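User: Before I run my own analysis I want an independent prediction to cross-check against. Here's the chain; please return only the C-alpha cells and, at the end, one sentence I can use as a sanity check.
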Amino acid sequence: MQTHILGYPRIGSKRELKKACEQYWSGKIVLEELLTAGRNICNQNWKIQKEAGIDLIPCNDFSYYDQVLDMSLIVGAIPVRYHEVALKKNNSELDLYFAMARGYQKDGLDITAMEMTKWFDTNYHYIVPEFYKDQQFKLTSDKIFNEFSGAKQAGINAKPVIIGPVSYLLLGKEKEEGFDKLDLAGNLLPVYKEILTKLQDQGAQWIQFDEPFLTLDLTEKAKETYQKVYRELRKEFPKLKFIMATYFDGLKDNVSLAVSIPADVLHIDLVRNPEQLEDILHAIPESLSLSLGITDGRNIWKNDYEKSLSFIRKATEKLGKERIFIAPSCSLLHSPCDLDFETGIQPEIKNWLAFAKQKVQEVVTLKAIAEGTGDQDILNDFEENKKAIASRKTSSLIHNHTVKQRVIAVTKEDAQRKNSFKIRKEEQQKALQLPLFPTTTIGSFPQTTEVRSWRAQFKKGELTAEQYDILLKEETQRTIRWQEEIGIDVLVHGEFERNDMVEYFGEKLEGFIFTKNGWVQSYGSRCVKPPVIFGDISRPEPMTVYWSQYAQSQTNKWVKGMLTGPVTILQWSFVRDDQPRSETCKQIALAIRDEVVDLEKAGIRIIQIDEPAIREGLPLRKAEWQNYLKWAVEAFRISASGVEDATQIHTHMCYSEFNDIIENIADMDADVITIECSRSQMELLNAFADFKYPNEIGPGVYDIHSPRVPSKEEMIELLRKAQNVIPAHQLWVNPDCGLKTRHWDETEKALIAMVAAAKEASAEYA
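Assistant: C-alpha cells:
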C-alpha cells in the first residue's frame, strides 16, 4: 500500500501567509520577503509529511491566493484588461496575479478584479477563469516548476498537483456568447503537455490531476472531452503516473467514465459517499489502482479506524494491497493546521478531534494497521482510537433532551409569517417611511487594528469589561454619527464587538466549542476560525439585543439588528457528524428565532438574518437538491417567522448563482434580499427578473473584496442596469458584502459615492 496527501493547508500554522501577503500589499515588506514566507510554509508542510512517513507528498498545492488563479496564470488565461499591469515598470508576476484577484487602482490604472465564487460546496472562494471564443493559451509562469525544485532541494521527489484541464475549463465562465468553454480544450491541451514535459524533465514520476467535476452531473460533451483529453495526455506521457483525484461526492453514474480514463490511480471520496466503493470495485479494470479517501479532509473529527479498515479490507480483498492507496478524502486545505496548538479545549472533546497534521498521521497509522506492520505504539494508537470513538458516542456532553423535544414540537405554522409579503409591505411602509432606493450596508464596518487590539486586551484581562464596553460604545456611536452625516437611510451598529459572523454567535450558544488557532482559508488572505458543533444547540440568553438597542438609542433613523442565519452557521462550522445536518440546522433556527423575537421586543424593526451560505450547501447532484432546499428554507423561515408584519426581515447572500434555485429563494419569504452583483455587472439580477421576484432586493453596487474604490458614475451605471430588469420600487442600494475587512479611508469614499449614486438614481427615476 502507499499513502498520499491530496493537498496541505497553505496559510501556515500561525497564518504566516496571511500576514506576509497583507504586509506586501500595504508596502511594509518587499517581494523577496513575501516569497521567503511562502517557501518557509512549503518547507514546513513537506517536513511534516516526510517525518510522518507519507509516501507521495504533494507540491503545487501551495498558493499565494488561490489555486485556480494559479492555473489561470500558468496557462496564460490573463484577461486583456490586466496586460497594462504586467507592462508597468517594477511590477512582478505576483503583482499581476494579485491585480487579477483584487483589482488594481494605481499608476493611472483602474481595473476591476476577476469574479470570485464558491469552490463547490465549501466556504472556500476561487477566482473564476474568464474564457473567450478561440482563446489561445501560453505557459506564462514557472511557479509549478519552482515548487517541484524546492521539494527536491528538501529531499522529496514530490507529486505535483494540477487542476485537471476539463475541471479547469468547467470552473470558468464564457465572457462572450456563441461558444462553449469546452471547445477550448484543444487550445489548452498543448500548454498542459508543455507543463508535463518540463515536470518529467525535472524528474517528476507522479502527477495528481484534480478532476472534481467527475462527481457532478456531466453533459455528454463533457464526458467526451474527458476521454479525448486524457487519451492524448496518456499517449504523450506513457511513463508518468497519473492520479485522477475526485472528491466532495461519489462518482455515481460517472463510474464507468472515471474507470475508463487512462490513469494509474483513481482517488475517490469515501467520507462523502461511502456507498460508491461497491460500484467502483465491481467496475475497476486491472490496470487501475484505487486511492481510498477515508480520512475526512473537510471536518475535524478523529477518524474511526475500525470503520476505515473495513473499507481497506474490502478493497484489498478485491484488488490486492499493492493496488491500494490510502489518503484523506480531499485536500486538507479545508482543515485547520495542527491540534497541538489547542490548549484550551476540554480534554474529553479534544480527544475526539484531528486537524491536518493529525490527519496525516492517521493515514500513515491506517496503512500500518492494515498491513500488520505496526509496532506496539501503533497498536496502542488503535486501542486509544477505539476508546475515543466510543467515548464520543456515549458522552453526556452531547445530548440535551429539552432541545430535542422542542425540535419535535415544531409545526408548519412556526415556519410562516402571519401574512403575505404584499400585506407586510404596506405595514412596513407605514412604519418605516423609507425613500425610493433606500441605502444601507450589509452590517459590519472596518475592524481596525485598534478595535482588534481592544478585543485582544479584553481577552487577556488587560481591559476590564467596563472599559471594553466604553470603547466599543464610543466606536459604535462614532459610526452611527458618520452614517447619519453622509445620509445612509438604514444604519447598522458596525459589529465592533464581533470577531467573526459565525464564531460570535457560536460563542453565545450551547453545543459549540472554539479553537484558538483553528484557522482555515476562505479566500486570499481572509481566514476564518469555524466553531465546532459537538452537541445539541440552544440559546441560554440574548446575544445581540444589548448592542442593537444601544445603537438604536443613538439615532432617530432605523438601525438593523444583525444576525447570522441557521444554514450559514451550520455551513461555516465544523458540524457534528452523528446526526443529520437538517436536525442540527433546525436546532440553530430555533435559537435564532428566539433572538429575532427579543430584538423586536427591544424596538428593532429591521432585522437582517444573513444566509450567504444557502447556495453553498446545495448537494453537488441536482437530484439531491430538493431534499436539502426543503429543510434549509424551512430553517430560515422558522428563524424569521416569529415577528409582526411591520417588522422587516432582510437576508443577505453573496457569490451565488441563483438561476436554478430562485424559486427556493423566493420561498424563504424575506422582505428584502441583498446580493453580490458588482463583479458580475448585475448579471445575477437576471434570475430575479425572469422569475418576477416579488419582494425587495438590494443588488450590491460595489465590490468590497477589493481595495479598489468605485466612482459614483460607475455605481449609477450599475443601478441603471438594475432598473432595466427590476422595478425601481423594489430596489435597495448597498455594497456587495460586509465591510469588516476594509480600511476606513476606502470605505468612507465608497459609501459617500454610493449614497450620491442612490440620490441621483432616485432623481432620474422621478
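Sanity check: Residues 31-52 form the longest helix (22 residues).
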